[in-house]
Amino acid sequence: MHGAPDSRYNDGFLPARKGTTVTMRFDLRQLGRKGSGTLRDEHVDRTFQPAEFTGSIVADEEYTIAAPVHLVMDVHKDGEAYRVTGRVQTRLQLACGRCLEPFEVPIDSPFELRYVPEPAAGTEGEEREVAEDDLTTAFYKEDAIDLGELMHEQFVLALPMKPLCSEACRGLCAQCGTNLNKATCDCAPEWTDPRLAALKHLVKSQKE
Length: 208
Fold this sequence. Notes:
The chain is mainly β. The protein has two domains: 13-169, no CATH class; 171-208, no CATH class. Helix content is 11%, strand content 30%. It is built from two helices and nine strands; from the N terminus they run E-E-E-E-E-E-E-E-E-H-H. The chain has helices at residues 147-158, 197-207; strands at 13-14, 25-27, 41-48, 64-65, 69-78, 81-95, 102-117, 137-140, 144-146. The strands form two sheets. Strands 3, 4, 5, 6, 7 and 8 form a six-stranded mixed β-sheet that branches. A hairpin with a 6-residue loop joins strand 6 and strand 7. The longest helix has 12 residues, at 147-158.
C-alpha cells in the first residue's frame, strides 16, 4: 500500500510535469479559491530550495542559487491581465571577473509586472501596440504564471555589471595565472604603450 504522495507545492501551485523543464507554476484558475484572498486577489508567500531549480529552464551559467529563494507576491486580476507585485530574496554564487573564484551576493529584488495572455500562434510577427509599461509586461499561458522564469529574470536584473569578490581583488597574473590574492609569483610585470608597439617591433627586427 502506497502512502499519500509528498507534494512540495502549496495550494495554487502546479507540480512539475514529468518529461518537461517546467518546475514552478502558479495556477491562475485557483485565484482566491483557497481562502487566501478574494476572487480577484491572491497573496503568495513561498520558499523554494535551490534543488528545485536544477534542470529547469531557468538554469543559467552566470550564477548558481546558493540559498533558499523566498518569493512574496500579490496577484490582482484585471480582466484577462494580472498585476503581480512582490519581491524575491536569496543568495547567488558568481565567479569573480578578476580572479575567477566563486563568491556570493545577496539578492533582494522588488518587482511589479503585468501579465497578459501569450499571443496565439501565428500572431508573433504582427505589430502590436507598445504600452508605456511594455518593459514590465510578461506573458502567461495555460492559465498559469511560470514562477521559475519570473525569478530568473529578477536574478539577471540584480546581477552586478562586473562581478567582483572584492573591490581590492588583485586578480590573476597575466603570465602564469597565479591568484594574486592568495600568493605571489616571480613574473615581472610587463607594460607596453600600444602607441609604441610598431616601434618596438621595428627595433626587434633590426636586432635580428
